[in-house]
Specification:
By secondary structure, the protein is an alpha/beta fold. It is 32% helix and 22% strand. The strands form four sheets. It has an eight-stranded parallel beta sheet. Strands 3-2-1-4-15-18-19 form a seven-stranded mixed beta sheet. Helix 1 links the parallel strand 5 and strand 6. The chain starts with 5 loop residues before the first strand and ends in a 27-residue tail after the last strand.
Amino acid sequence: MSDFDLVLAGTLVLPHRVVPGGFVAVRDGRVALVGQGAPPAARERHSLGEALILPGAIDAQVHSLSQKGAEDFIWSTRSAAAGGVTTIVDMPYDDGNLICSAEALKSKVAHAAPQARVDFALHGTVNPEEGAARIPEMVSAGACAFKFSTFGTHPVRFPRIPPQLLLECFTSIAREGLAAGVHNENHEAVETYMAQVRASGITDWRAHGLSRPPITELLAMHEIYEIGAMAGCDAHVVHCSLSRGYDIAAAYRTQGFTATVECCIHYLVLDEENDVRRLGGKAKINPPVRPRAEVEGLWRQVAAGNVWLVSTDHVSWTADRKTDPNMLANASGVPGLEAMVPLFVKGALERGVPLTWAARLMSANPARHFRIDDRKGNLAAGFDADIIVMTPEPYVYEAAASGHNVVDWSPYDGMTMPWRITATYLRGEQVYDGRAVLAEPGNGRFVRPPLTRAIASTA
């Protein structure tokens, strides 16, 4: 009788090396053995030829509840399973329910658990009127990180956190050993540029980029990293659309501070002059999608090791929230859970970027960032057997055709992906078979940092 429940053989894509002719063996939901050569016997064994075998992705930035009555975890985790994402980290800005207390966080866990098809973790944030007082209680309740914004999208649901309060929050989070992530747009600058755009009468696809020029991001990044340096906190920018921003973060790291940056997949794929012009509101994202020269600059930052995470900033707005002729009237954000991994692999292969970056930026580094790397983020003995299988099977992506998304649109519709996800495994159980999501609601688990965690450094 075999000692293993499952063995998958193919090309292993690990965070620091690619293993041709490799295999991963699973026992009791955990990786038991990783090797190269003849795979061992197992109760279930698949020789996958030239298929890629990667660790399950951890999407660091998901908004499952931004529009009440729309997506929810029943759909976001379905899209995730089909996209090879085995853990989502959900944002705290839920419609009608800011996750700013232990009670709110526990309530969200109770809400999500019966729906989730893959594992999930949760960000916390603060109510500006309460300050940082509730941060320790949210950590005790299981928050894996905290999210703030230097720009006020909405005074209640998505509030601006001013510098003095941000310093107070960072100081508290540093004591807890977690990371603080911040939306990086300078509030006063954006308000000024938006007023100028409105006064100019420009309302088409150009309006959004003009209302948030590069200086609005770069000013905010300096503020975030200076506050992180003063507080001794792991300071993280949750999305940067500009190559210059990654240089700023690298400069802080050379000075000994923990300063990291996340690159959303849309910034590595979409450009302003082609895609925003073509898609209008369906490509409105904060910060904005930039010109093609910035897209290529971001890929150079990936290859240079200056990108810490790749995520989606996934939100599935209904079409009526994304199709207003007045560009600035549309909601900001796009869905991406089903497409992130295939898009990154496509872009990396086209540019000669090693695929190890896929395993590092979408698995190993997110696990470390959220302090769950005791069991997530790698194909190594003792880790959860969260696995993606991809085969060289070109296809044209269409969100509506797949059936795994609550909305019938995507900014990536019509794009050809050279590699298809043909299987996703969560803790050794297959949750997606290349066509259908097999996981039932309630299959996912709440993932939190260990209570006895040591303070992790991301430097």
